[in-house]
Structure formats: structure tokens, C-alpha cells
Amino acid sequence: MLRELVHRPVQTNEVGRCAALLGGFVEVARRTGLPLRLLEVGAAAALILRWDHYFYEGGHAGWGDPDSPERISNVFGDVYPRLDVSTGIEERHGCDTSPIDPATDEGALTLPSYVWPDQMERFRRLTAAIDVARRVPAPVDRANAADWIEAALARGVSGVATVVYHSIVWQYLSNADRARFKRVMAAAGQAATHDSPLAWLRFEPGRNIAEVRLRLWPGSKDQLLARSGFHGKPVYWLAPGN
Length: 242
Prior knowledge:
The chain has helices at residues 2-6, 17-32, 105-110, 120-133, 145-152, 175-191, and strands at 36-41, 55-58, 61-64, 71-72, 89-96, 140-142, 161-167, 198-205, 210-217, 223-228, 235-237. The chain is an alpha/beta fold and 242 residues long. The chain has one domain. The strands form two sheets. It has an eight-stranded mixed β-sheet, with helices on both faces. A three-stranded mixed β-sheet has the order 3-2-4, with no helix packed on it. The chain is globular. It starts with a helix and ends in a 5-residue tail after the last strand.
């Protein structure tokens, strides 16, 4: 058993990153006025796929489920995203080359093994997220990222905004898969309409800090929304709050 686990890749299922991504999800909902179809690449245990079931506090505002065991607070500076937009989630689905099911005893035991033992706040967030995962389904397919996203975007879905997103995943894809992924997104973006828009939301390394970027089709250019710590704290929101 231990020999098998040694060869299993470490996965950072850091729920704190949801605070940085939150502004992107809310921005897509605000601009499109549509419910969201969530497609997460490199979803691991899909804890971030359940982001709308957590509660966030920024300034004097709050967003999400106030009764959630997962509360993410004190992460924003003086500027934070507008949190006055509600979102409906039409679908949540992910892929990963080595998915973990947090709703199982084995998954719930595996996930804490990837957290450094002195990081008690991360353990608290993880425990709360696993509690949420046990009651909120979020399927994750075992699949290659480029293959999966090509199949998922083969046809547009009317009446929803499809949000393809990933966090600290891009560096683990091969050069060929990154190039193919970009081609798939560009083609799907060209086919997007106002009734079936497509968003590409990314939380990936910048120079010395993570960056949150958003591209929304049809019509908009790539936009830097925020800079953030690699585990989501602190979050420096850059996009205008209007």
C-alpha cells in the first residue's frame, strides 16, 4: 500500500484559491447574465468545483452560503471584486489524470497527506471542503486535459456561460497538449455566441506570484483580473469593480 502511494503524484487541493477565482466567476455571470457551466481541468478532488458552496468575506460584503462550514475571509486587500452578483450553476464537471474522490474514506484520508503538518489553517479549510464534498456531487473524469476539453467543447450549450478553468495546472501539461488546448479554446471561442458564451479563467504562475486571467468570447480580450498568493492569500484584485 505504502509503495503504491509513494508513486502517486502530489496534488495541492487548495480551497484558498477559490477566493482568487471567485471574482472571475462572478464577472462572467455579471457580463453574460447567464447561469454557469463549469469545466475544470486538473480538478483533482474537485474541491474548487464546489466553490459556490463556500462563504467569502471581503470588506463589508459577503458572498455565498452563509451556513457553509467553509468560510474564506481576510484574503482581499483594499480592492476586492464586486460581490453583488448571484450565480446559478447549471453543470459542474472536471477531469484529471489521477482524480481523488473526497466523499470516500480513502479520499478523505489521502487529501490531508498532501498538506504540510504545520499549516493548520489549510487543514481547517480542507476538512470543511471535504464536508461540503460529501453532499455536493462534482464528477471528475480520468482523462487527458486536451482530449477532454476538446470533447466537452465539441458543441456549444445554449442558455449557459461555459467556463473552462484551471489552477496551477498549465505547467504540468506537455508542450503538445498546451498547443492543442489553445487551438481548441480558440476554435470554440470563434463559435461562441451571446446565447452560448465561452470563458477561459486561469489561476497560474506569473513571475513571483500567481495571476488570475480571464478571456470571454465573443468579443473581449484577455484580461488580468488579480494577482494572488499561490494558495490564494493574499488576493490583489485589479479589475475595475463596475
